[in-house]
Design brief:
Blueprint (H helix, E strand, L loop, with lengths): L6 E12 L5 E3 L6 E8 L1 E6 L6 E4 L2 E5 L5 E5 L6 E11 L2 E2 L2 E2 L3 E2 L8 E3 L2 H17 L5 H19 L10 H14 L7 H7 L4 H12 L3 H19 L4 H7 L5 H12 L3 H10 L1
Antiparallel strand pairs: 1-8, 2-7, 3-6, 3-8, 4-5, 4-7, 6-12, 8-11, 9-10
Helix pairs in contact: 1-2, 7-8
Protein name: AraC family transcriptional regulator
Pfam family, one: AraC_binding
Keywords: DNA-binding, Transcription, Transcription regulation
Length: about 280
């Protein structure tokens, strides 16, 4: 298991490949992670051990983990144009103000094949073209920029919003969650957020329990406490100012919530982190 912010990448090669009619090939570089983004055209991909080939068309993204064997074929009338990104991927954790030893990641937790639609497809197409134009071997500054683009793609692919109905209750849950993340310092009622999305408070609670294992109220408290910890560690703001910055009306209410969260008062937490 891993979290997205623990991922590190190193790109080995970025290639825009325009195929010819009757083109056939196999996946040669099986020691790395690979993305194949289909800009245009059609064809088929067949993975080793599978009996049925995958139909390939514009707007599809294929992810191949290390070790996966695959054969590829382009159609006669509409040859494929593909951006291929070959990269290394590791997990690099930072815990208790210390870096842990990197661990090579065997497989990313994303599907082998995705059909991307609408604006998401346009954005991905543009991102892969930018990577093609920017990547150069052994130019660290350029490669760092391209790695940043790849990390943005990975973040998008790991987002639960990627595959959901934009008008369904699951997406309403995502919008409410994002609102809490962006407006944690504001005062608002959970019920008002639910009504604005046309769902009941009880159903919203079920969605939060399903996806996050906490209620909407507890999730908001988590966000506020995470920001409060950083205010205490990285600023010298007094506690009453931190309270207001984290959505609490007074210092007492904030200190009570923080003590329940951290097992100690805000001032004790600040002192402890200063001594480490």
């Amino acid at each position: 298991m891993y979290t997205v912010d623990d991922l590190s990448v190193r790109i080995d090669w970025v290639l825009l490949k325009t195929t010819e009619p009757f083109w056939q090939d196999i996946r040669h570089n099986r020691s790395v992670h690979s993305f194949y983004w289909i800009h245009k055209g059609s064809g088929t991909f067949l993975c080793a051990g599978e009996n049925e080939a995958h139909a390939v068309q514009k707007g599809m993204l294929f992810y191949m983990e290390p070790g996966l064997s695959m054969s590829m074929e382009s159609s006669v009338d509409d040859p494929l144009q593909i951006t291929m990104v070959l990269f290394q991927c590791s997990i690099t954790c930072y815990e208790n103000q210390q870096w842990k030893m990197p661990q090579q990641l065997a497989r990313l937790n994303i599907p082998f094949k995705q059909q991307v639609l609408g604006q998401d497809a346009l954005d991905l197409d543009d991102a892969f073209r930018q990577m093609v134009h920017s990547w150069l071997p052994d130019i660290p500054e350029r490669n760092l920029y391209v790695c940043g683009t790849l990390m943005q793609i990975l973040a998008k692919l790991h987002s639960p919003e990627q595959v959901q109905d934009p008008e369904g209750p699951e997406q309403a849950f995502q919008r409410i969650k994002r609102y809490m993340q962006q407006h944690y310092e504001s005062t608002f009622r959970i019920g008002d957020l639910a009504r604005s999305e046309g769902i009941s408070v009880s159903y919203l609670r079920k969605l939060f329990i399903k996806h996050l294992s906490v209620s909407p109220k507890d999730y908001l408290i988590q966000i506020r406490m995470q920001h409060a910890e950083r205010y205490l560690i990285f600023t010298r703001l007094p506690v009453h100012a931190i309270a207001r910055s984290c959505g609490y009306r007074d210092e007492f209410q904030f200190s009570k919530a923080f003590s329940k969260h951290a097992g100690q008062s805000p001032l004790k937490f600040r002192k402890q982190t200063e001594e480490q």
